[in-house]
């Protein structure tokens, strides 16, 4: 059997690719080392922010807007709520580049945002304490996605539509034979006309030359009452502060999830991604931020460890190697990729059909790391 597309790594991006390619009528094999969704990749912890007025740069906005449409469509296909439009509050000092980028992205794409002073924020959400030299941009139509649930639905939809799935089976090597991509696993060798490599944190085991660095990250849930809940219109947030860059979600069941985006520990092996609490700063990295800006949030209830696949400039890698146009690599999502998983899966499905991407992917090319040669 020769597949139209083999997906190596069926987590966030790979699960979406498996479904969209199968939905498009292709003969697809999805492979994963584990059984997605699972706790050993980058996609666990129930929720992921989706921001539209993108602080990481306006080049991401067309992608995220298409991603949102695909998430909304997935919700219809799944018959279950995956998207919570609770709004996202982007917070930072007046002069923060991130806030300036959010405003720039919003203006360029005419997105619905509200610029708020520190006083405006504290009046509307008295849970926040912001210094006077801070401001915020509120995105009422953004929010968060139920990440593991979305992956489960992609995998179920793909399977029901006839996609072959080989899980709990690590890929051990990738090669080429004539016109075909060759994938070696413990369960045998598979061949396809096109290949998607979406293997997340440990992609370098398969593609050692890729400039991707695994980073251990933690996140945790803190005691927070109904004032911090979605019912009470407490929004999700991203905050650039003197204490670090933090993100969080409305409290669910009296527990508010917060993580720190910067920092973390570079790791070289999966064993080094030790559980929450094994590094001294795991439990304390949010304390100063919480005490200063969300003083009504209580003690840490529990936390978890996860990992990012960092590219050198924290921008995505969406490209084919120069010598192999049959292979698409989607990697280096650098801790902000889940919201894009739907559109990245769709890009991979179009690639498998031999179509050009409707998006400008040059900012995400591999050649940007060539040192300008
Ligand atoms: C704590 C944390 C918070 C985050 N918050 C946000 C957020 O709020 N918003 C946002 O947009 N993004 C966020 N992200 C980032 C986002 O979750 C990731 O960018 C995204 O999930 C990565 O998708 P992926 O498909 O590349 O990786 P994964 O979902 O990890 O999938 C990779 C898959 O490849 C498999 N695999 C690896 N090696 C092999 C092999 N050799 N053979 C077979 N299979 C293999 C793995 O088992 C895994 O299932 C966060 C990440 C973390 C860790």
Task: Kindly describe this structure.
It is a single chain. The chain has helices at 12-23, 61-78, 97-108, 118-124, 147-160, 287-293, 341-352; strands spanning 2-8, 28-31, 47-50, 83-84, 88-93, 114-117, 134-139, 143-146, 164-166, 171-177, 180-185, 188-197, 213-223, 236-241, 244-248, 255-260, 265-266, 300-310, 317-319, 327-331. It is α+β, with helices and mostly antiparallel strands. It has two domains: 2-44 and 148-210 and 314-369, FAD/NAD(P)-binding domain; 88-140 and 213-310, D-Amino Acid Oxidase, subunit A, domain 2 (D-Amino Acid Oxidase, Chain A, domain 2). Strands 5, 6, 7, 13, 14, 15, 16, 17 and 18 form a nine-stranded mixed β-sheet that branches. Helix 2 crosses helix 5. The longest helix is centred in the first third of the chain and has 18 residues, at 61-78.
